[in-house]
Amino acid sequence: MTSSIPPVINLENICFGYDSREILHNINFKIEKGYFTIIVGPNGGGKTTLLRLILGLLHPQYGYVKILDRPPEQMRRQIGYVPQSLQFDKRFPVTVLDVVLMGRIERKPFGFYRRKDKEYAKLCIEEVGLPDKMNESFATLSGGQQQRVLIAQALATQPKLLLLDEPCANLDTPGTRTIYHLLQKLNRNLTIVMVSHNLDIIEPFASHIICVNRTAQLHKIEDISKTALQNGDWLRLTHKFCPINQGDHGERQEPHKGEPRQDYTEEIFHD
Amino acid sequence: MTDFFSSPLVLRSLLALFLISISCGIIGSYVIVKRCSYMVGSISHSLLGGIGLALFCQQVLHWQWFSPLAGTLLASIFVASLLTLLTRRNQLSNDVILSAVWALGMAIGVSFIYAIPGYPVDLTSYLFGDIWLVSTTDLWVMLLMDIIILIIVLLFHNRLLYLCFNEEGLRLRGVKADWYLLILHLLIALTIVQLAQVVGIVLCLATLILPAAAATTFLKRMPSIMFFSALICFFCSSIGLYGGYMWNLPTGAFIIEIIGGFYLLTIPVCYIIKRYSIYKNKTNNKRIRNA
């Protein structure tokens, strides 16, 4: 990467905690354009917190998050976020097209969607392979199809960065594979960061891995011993400096780097 | 029957029902998909505080312009804004806040009413409504509110729908979700003010929610749900009005009974339709297999 292109995600000396309990400590990494990065780590290790910091929903106590060299609150329109399909009301009365169109919501403050938006949304639905489900109710789709619709919604925003929160949490292996093949295809134009549990399936597709357990480390996928991955058991990853292997016990705590942030920035909108 | 339709009182009441059905159908659908019926209950019951304040100001301070309608309008806007501020982003436990506002509003209303010297005010018409008391001015106010609601919904429907679907998602698109939450709550408040005239502040919860709930059981898109819940609301409340007129029943209560009955009827009907379609599918599959 040349120095003229800023990293898509840049975390510098991030520390974050709720009240007195610290969840993430001294995190530094840069995600460049075109990476397909997976965030792994034990439950309660801070995966979701890290994702929410990148989204700008949480603010770090120390350090800075930069998305393409700017604060995440200002870059929200460049980020396509795919939430878990589990969290939605299963009987919500919308069609697939309605859900995907929601990805274009910020483009028009008043009134109905334009034809241009509808056409782009249809393209996105075709991209995820559900053109025949366009006018079906979102509620009647299977879990995997709902997840693909949510990916289409994120694509409709025309993002530079795609963030996914455990997109395959409730899917079987074939469903998971479909999603990963789709993501691999999208990775040609997009930087992708996703939280995942089953590393064994995702491993052929990814370029980098972030191990999170109170602190975080970015690894290249080649640096990881592949034999340890056979059962998808990421806890036995055998590579140097992995926070997952170090565990919490008897660890010497490094002091916080940099000054604590007092300016908890108000959310900036440019509506 | 001819007697029923020739009475100008009945025509005025029917017109009132038509006007509230429009806002009820639209806003009730949002309430159902957002699942915030408890919010409706909290706003509507706390309107008694506004009514009490208005009556107190009218009779003790002699502010004749401060009618109960103005009181409910003021209280509804205040309560909706307060609840938006307190319940946004789930910072505090929402059910406790809603219950507290619910009870506090009613308590304040009762206190004001008992502070009025002389005869105690009869609260029945405020609590349970009296459609026969709706005046021509009230009709104009209702029409104005309908127009406001329609314009706002036409302008912001997409964002309100996204808000109901995924509030955090809307925030992540860089849209000020809290403002749209406030708009939604103000629309709910405006609808409740309208309904309070006809069915009273206690019963308006059912009028707002049940037609939309009935419509959601068999419809799959927001615009059709809104249209049909408005239709159901008008149909059921007209029957209620007719019954109330013919058999001299309390109209507000009878309207609620008809709407409630209609909603309860949709549950078994929906179940039977579902079973029938499963049965039909099965026999169809068998036929295909045999062929």
Summed up:
The complex is a heterodimer of chains A (271) and B (291). Chain A has 271 residues and is α/β, with parallel strands linked by helices.
What this model shows, in words?
The complex is a heterodimer of chains A (271) and B (291). By secondary structure, chain A is α/β, with parallel strands linked by helices. Chain A has 7 helices and 9 strands; from the N terminus they run βββαββαααβαβαββα. Chain A has helices at residues 47-55, 96-101, 115-127, 143-156, 173-186, 199-202, 243-246; strands at 9-18, 21-31, 36-40, 62-67, 79-82, 161-165, 191-195, 208-213, 215-220. In chain A, the strands form 2 sheets. Chain A has a 6-stranded mixed beta sheet, with helices on both faces. In chain A, a hairpin with a 1-residue loop joins β8 and β9. Chain B has one domain (2-290): ABC transporter involved in vitamin B12 uptake, BtuC (Orthogonal Bundle). The mean pLDDT of chain B is 89. In chain B, α2 (8-34) packs across α10 (200-218) and α2 (8-34) packs antiparallel against α11. Chain B has 12 helices and no strands. Helix content of chain B is 84%, strand content 0%. The interface between A and B is medium-sized, with 34 and 28 residues.
